[in-house]
Each structure stands twice: as structure tokens, then as C-alpha cells.
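Residues and backbone
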Amino acid sequence: MRVLGLILAGGGSSRMGQDKLALEIAGFSMLALTTHSLRDCTLIAIAAGENNLPEDAAMYHHIMDSKTHVGPRAGLFPGLTFAAENNFEFVQLSPCDTPLVNSDVFRRLKDGLKDADCCVPRTENGIHPLHALVRTEVFLELLMEDGETSNVHSLVTSLAHNEILIDSDIMLNINSPEDLKMLRYQDLIDLQQRHQ
């Protein structure tokens, strides 16, 4: 199974007040933490728009965001197109700002896919479509047919999909200095150990 790990990292980091990609957590950039979690993928690509990649993640394939789409679609369209053109059957999506999501979550998504077109993590707060494992051709076709009509959540749930249940703490999204303060001391130790 050829899987492209696609990191969505094109946002402006306006709430953080500094570049989230390079934000250091447990000695690594937030982007490097995400790439490490996707290490079981065949290839990792980063849809980072105009953002510069931090040094500890600069070796990965950089995909420019679409100028004709906004939000996650700006990275999804070129990322899925790249995957289709390079014969990746699946794309594992991941935003760059959830550093506690680890490789075990992505392995569980792969195991949970079975014959579906998509497998998505679910917490007590609902599904997390930007962490879905999607069948490349099916999801790309759906995106093209939809244009800008539906949100990504609706698109993912319209596919034949399976879900895995995960702890909501893992999905901590770091968008602001306040979010960063929510990382516990044990989280930081776990992140350091994960990357040794």
C-alpha cells in the first residue's frame, strides 16, 4: 500500500503570533514532530503555501498551495493531485498543529480502513477529518465535483468510511499561546522520547 503523508501547513499562524511550523516543542519544530509521526508513510509531502520549512523538516517534499482555493482545500487539491500523479493509492492527512498525534494513531487508521474509501479518527467531540486516511482517486474526484460547496467534514462523511476511537487529549490543536500552555509536562517528556 503506497501512502503519501500529506501535512497541511499553509495557514498564516495569526492567532499564534509567530510561525507555527517552526515553533519549538520538546526540542523539535512542530512540523518535525508531525513528520516523525508520519514516518511509516511511503513519502511525506508538506503543503506549506508560502511558509518556509524549518531546518529540521526542510528535507521533505514541499508542495505549493493552490491559489484558487482557500482553507484546507488550498493544500488538499495540490497534495491529492501530486499523490494521484505519483501513484499513491492513499493519502494520510495531517495538519501540522496537533503534535500529540503519534504514529500509532496513523497505524490504527490504516488497520481500520479495510475496504472503505476513508478511515477517520473520532473522539468524544466528533470526527477529525483533517487526520483521515483517504483513497486518493475517490477523494480527489469528490473534491473536484464539490468545488467549494461543502466543508471537509461533510466530504469525508459522504465517503464509505470507517472510524477509530481515540482519546480527545491527543487531538490538542496548537493555534495560540494559550493552547501551547495546555501541553502537560508528561506530554513534553513523551514527545522527546518519541523522537530519540
